[in-house]
Write a structure and sequence with these properties.
The chain contains 13 helices and no strands. It has helices at about 5-15, 25-55, 65-80, 80-90, 95-110, 110-125, 130-135, 140-160, 165-195, 205-230, 240-255, 260-270, 270-290. The N and C termini lie far apart (about 70 Å). Mean pLDDT is about 80; it is low at about 5-15 and about 285-290.
Length: about 290
């Protein structure tokens, strides 16, 4: 039996880790699968709640809601792929299903482009309000969203068909670029908003809402995207064991965790009336059917 066939057999029997070398320290893969289950159980309903809240309040929507909706849609898809991903990784190891899995991971890799769009939209609204007024039309954001979808689908298909190695450098470039842009936008927004309330007791409601949105995005950036930016560029300097058994697995698990953290942070900033309205709508549905 060849070495590759032996490794494939070992990987299919030793469920918690991808490489036989990781048998002595499978904790990264335990964390990885725990995040998968958490995303399915928590991330899926939270993203659905975000989608429902945006669709049900079209008349009171902000310009960023178009990007938030698309991001929640991508996160919902990725969460729902969890059963397929886990069954194929742990049991089937079917080559055809791997194409679908790599596509889902490609989608997740660059879904943060919609987070970049949210940051840029809020940056323009706060730092350059005059220019923002001129481009407030949502048709502009729909066109931008369509362009981002094209980039995301192209990346996902490339990763699915050609493999992970082909897009590694593209992924590193995208995440580094996105991280820098998002940090710049959020720091600029916080600086302008804090300066605008100097000497005042309260912040204007519109600015307060923008400030809360900035804090949401900043939390997502620090928790989910700082680890890959800080660790992945040094991949050539790690040993095989450290990189493949610990760092890479943990970093991607933390990034995947954004599927739950993003909607949870958004929900915590929703008005209480919005959350009560959501639950009351679901509670009233059985009653309305019977009447």
């Amino acid at each position: 039996m060849s070495n590759s066939a032996l490794n494939l057999t070992l990987c299919s029997t030793l469920l918690w880790y991808q490489f036989p070398e990781c048998a002595v320290a499978p904790y990264g893969f335990v964390f990885y699968f725990a995040v998968k289950v958490f995303n399915l159980v928590v991330g899926t309903p939270c993203n659905v709640l975000v989608l429902w809240q945006i669709l049900s309040r079209k008349s009171d929507a902000t310009t960023s809601n178009i990007f938030i909706f698309n991001l929640a849609l991508l996160d919902t898809y990725f969460c729902l792929m969890t059963p397929v991903d886990m069954v194929n990784r742990l049991l089937l190891n079917d080559r055809r299903v791997w194409f679908l899995q790599r596509f889902a991971y490609g989608i997740k890799d660059v879904a943060l482009l919609f987070l970049v769009c949210i940051c840029l939209d809020r940056y323009m609204a706060v730092v350059h309000p005059v220019l923002f007024t001129a481009i407030r039309d949502n048709r502009v954001r729909i066109c931008v969203s369509a362009l981002v979808w094209c980039l995301i689908l192209a990346y996902g298909l490339t990763k699915s068909v050609l493999g992970v190695v082909i897009v590694n450098e593209v992924f590193s470039g995208v995440i580094l670029f996105s991280f820098v842009v998002m940090i710049f936008c959020n720091i600029s927004i916080i600086w302008v908003l804090r300066r605008s309330v100097t000497g005042k007791e309260t912040m204007h409601p519109v600015k307060k809402k923008a400030f809360r949105m900035v804090l949401i995005i900043l939390g997502i950036i620090v928790v989910n995207y700082l680890p890959p930016v800080a660790l992945m560029p040094f991949a050539p300097y790690y040993s095989f064991m450290v990189f493949f058994c610990h760092i890479r697995t943990s970093v991607f698990a933390i990034m995947d965790l954004s599927c739950s953290i993003e909607p949870l942070l958004y929900i915590t900033k929703m008005e209480r009336a919005d959350i009560r309205g959501c639950w009351s709508t679901f509670a009233k549905k059985p009653h309305s059917v019977n009447t």
